[in-house]
Design goal:
The N and C termini lie far apart (58 Å). 31% of the residues lie in helices and 20% in strands. It has 326 residues and is α+β, with helices and mostly antiparallel strands. The longest helix is centred in the last third of the chain and has 18 residues. The protein has 14 helices and 12 strands. Among the domains are: 50 residues, Uridine Diphospho-n-acetylenolpyruvylglucosamine Reductase, domain 2; 101 residues, CO dehydrogenase flavoprotein, C-terminal domain (Enolase-like, domain 1, 2-Layer Sandwich). The structure holds iron/sulfur cluster. It comes from Streptomyces camelliae. Keywords: Oxidoreductase. It holds the Pfam family FAD_binding_5. This is Xanthine dehydrogenase family protein subunit M.
């Protein structure tokens, strides 16, 4: 591990000052410390923000939900408001990582976590994300776990977060604090597709701090849930996943929010599936025909062609679980 300095800050002003000077924020440390041990990350200065007052879950005036950036994954998953208003968030969190990691890792850290592409973590392999311009060992390597959507010639790595898929489906916003003050970003604009610069993963300005993720109020009743398909039943990343929220009134779908995980370079919102659902009555054939659009635009690699069909089946199954059939 490379030498680094460590500072623990107690207020946001102090944090921003250290962040602007080039310090890397750390809270739970469940991703960053691993990467530092493997020398994938070599920060010169760590700024411990775990003491900042960003650990609350609150219901907004409009009936949405604001989750502080330092709320632990386990706390968010167990919070009564999260469980009742947006079960999709609780389920996505509970299906992530291990209990020990969920007790440490924060919501802000979760959406900042880096890919699990094995070549990214192997410092002897070519990786444009780790070392811009060095190439992409995964393209011609073993790419069974890699993305089929949103890829570029430079990078085909998936985003690993489960809860980010729920946030993408629900059209959350990310609250930020930086030198220029407060700003909010739609979740869809926060995480960046790789393009020609896969090393740039979030639309953050230098020293900017995530303060919260806000879920907008959605019409009620709202049913929601998260399905994760993986090689083993715990402590494993998604092959495919689906976050679904449906508002059904008088037997007709009024609103549909759907996103997929394990398949995209970022959590993959599925607007074509959503449009197909709205205005229709729940039925077995509707779930199948909507899910058929889930893999539109997919570009499978040598070893992950199976994800195209698996994605459609995952989305259809989760639509059925959440929406039921008559
Ligand atoms: Fe690196 Fe992305 Fe290629 Fe993986 S897929 S080796 S992260 S450039």
């Amino acid at each position: 591990m490379h030498p680094f300095s460590y500072t623990r800050v107690s207020d946001t002003r102090e944090a921003l000052k250290a962040g602007r000077a080039g310090g890397r924020y750390i809270a739970g440390g469940t991703t960053l410390v691993d990467l530092m041990r493997e020398t994938v990350e070599r920060p010169e200065a760590l700024v411990d923000i775990s003491g900042l007052p960003l650990r609350e879950v609150t219901v907004t005036e409009r009936g949405g939900l604001r989750i502080g950036a330092l709320v632990r994954m386990a706390e968010a998953a167990a919070h009564p408001k999260v469980r009742t208003l947006y079960p999709v968030i609780s389920q996505a969190l509970e299906l992530s990582a291990s209990a020990q990691l969920r007790n440490m890792a924060t919501i802000g850290g979760n959406i900042m976590q880096r890919t699990r592409c094995t070549y990214f973590r192997d410092v002897t392999a070519a990786c444009n994300k780790r070392e811009p311009g060095s190439g992409c060992a995964a393209r011609e390597g073993f790419n069974r776990m890699h993305a089929i959507l949103g890829t570029s010639d430079a990078c085909v790595a998936t985003h690993p977060s489960d809860v980010a898929v729920a946030f993408a489906a629900l059209e959350a916003t990310v609250h930020l604090l930086g030198a220029e003050g407060v700003r909010t970003l739609p979740f869809a604009d926060f995480l960046l597709r790789p393009g020609t610069t896969p090393n740039r993963e979030q639309a953050l300005r230098k020293g900017e701090l995530i303060t919260a993720v806000e879920i907008p109020a959605l019409p009620r009743p709202l049913k929601s849930g998260y399905l994760k398909v993986r090689d083993r039943q715990s402590y494993e990343f998604a092959l495919t996943s689906a976050a679904v929220a449906l508002h059904v009134r008088r037997g007709v779908i009024q609103e549909a929010k759907v996103a997929a995980g394990g398949v995209g370079t970022v959590p993959w919102k599925l607007p074509a599936v959503e449009r197909h659902l709205v205005g229709e009555r729940p039925s077995e054939s509707l779930w199948t025909s909507a899910a058929a659009k889930a893999a539109d635009g997919a570009r499978p690699l040598q070893h992950n062609g199976f994800k195209v069909e698996l994605l459609k089946r995952t989305v259809a199954r989760q639509l059925r679980i959440v929406g039921g059939t008559k």
